[in-house]
Specification:
The complex is a heterodimer of chains A (130) and B (152).
Chain A: H1 2-7, H2 13-27, E1 46-47, H3 58-64, H4 73-80, E2 85-87, E3 90-91, E4 97-105, E5 108-118, E6 121-129
Antiparallel strand pairs in A: 1-2, 2-4, 3-4, 4-5, 5-6
Chain B: H1 2-13, E1 37-38, E2 41-42, E3 50-53, E4 58-60, E5 65-69, E6 75-79, E7 86-91, E8 99-101, E9 106-109, E10 112-120, E11 126-129, H2 133-140
Antiparallel strand pairs in B: 1-2, 3-10, 4-9, 5-6, 5-8, 6-7, 7-10, 10-11
Classes of the chains: A alpha+beta (130), B alpha+beta (152).
């Protein structure tokens, strides 16, 4: 008789209820409620001076993309100019200070470009979406 | 029918891009690397990995970023738009939280964490470099980012 109830095409109401609750649990994102998570955190804060008028144009960006990693910081700065601001200095690899500079995009203010230098060397860039 | 609908909704709603395996071509090619098999045993860490005794403790996102599975089994890649030119490989992570992660939020836990810092090369390869304690401290302590910045 037990086998008969398992083979039954209709889903047991209890199972259906469980499925509904599981589905509800999946739909709700508890991560933002839990204390160890800060999903809505703003992007990393600027340290020191902020030059509010600085934005990066399409032309500047296009030029920057042609500069290979390991080129000089000077070459990059000739293209992009002074930064909007700098992020906290840190060491990513031992003994080398990484300098991170921020440039909001003129044509997309919600996106900022982060450039990383190590000493006089240009290490790379990434886009940060807010 | 209900089940298939549920499965469809789950697969459609969660972690679509984040579970895409991120292949990381590493410049250094060693004979013995993590993920390889020696006899019946898998290599868990290789030259360039720092192994940390975590005893099941949590590992936290050092910056706002993303956690993705790596092509090396049992390893994951953390990258952040706030830290260009670098990615971090985390091996041995248990119950990983894939996808977008906020700075200081838990990314999983580990008994032993294998941590490697990779720097981008102009040819698109990644080279293993000596990790600094700055990033490692942030990985182990969600409040470590206050150090240095919050002293004034």
């Amino acid at each position: 008789m037990q086998r008969h109830s398992i083979d039954s095409p209709s889903i047991h109401p209890l199972l259906l209820g469980g499925l509904f609750l599981a589905f509800l649990g999946l739909m709700l994102d508890f991560r933002s409620v839990l204390p160890f998570n800060t999903s809505a955190a703003p992007p990393e804060r600027c340290q020191g001076d902020v030059n509010h008028e600085v934005v990066l144009s399409r032309e500047q960006l296009a030029q920057l993309l042609t500069v290979p990693e390991r080129d000089t910081k000077q070459r990059v700065q000739e293209i992009v100019g002074a930064p909007f601001c700098s992020l906290q200095s840190l060491q990513v690899r031992a003994g080398i200070a990484a300098e991170r500079q921020v440039y909001p995009l003129a044509f997309d203010p919600s996106t900022r470009l982060v450039i990383l230098y190590e000493g006089d060397e240009y290490a790379g860039y990434r886009f940060s979406f807010q | 029918m209900t089940l298939s609908l549920l499965a469809l909704l789950i697969s459609g709603c969660t972690q679509s891009e984040s579970s895409v395996v991120r292949e990381v071509p590493i410049q250094q090619a060693w004979q013995l690397e993590p993920g390889q098999q020696v006899g019946e045993h898998r290599i868990a860490g290789g030259l360039g990995d720092i192994s940390i005794e975590m005893r099941g403790d949590r590992i936290y996102a050092p910056f706002d970023g993303e956690l993705q599975p790596n092509n090396v089994p049992n390893c994951y890649v953390f990258s952040s738009p706030e830290v260009p030119a670098y990615i971090f490989r985390l091996c041995g992570l248990e119950r990983p939280r894939l996808g977008a992660v906020a700075q200081g939020s838990a990314m999983g836990s580990a008994d032993f964490l294998g941590f490697a810092t990779l720097r981008r090369q102009p040819d698109g390869h990644w080279t293993m470099v000596e990790p600094a304690s700055d990033v490692l401290q942030r990985l182990l302590d969600p409040d470590a980012m206050q150090v240095g910045g919050g002293e004034e």
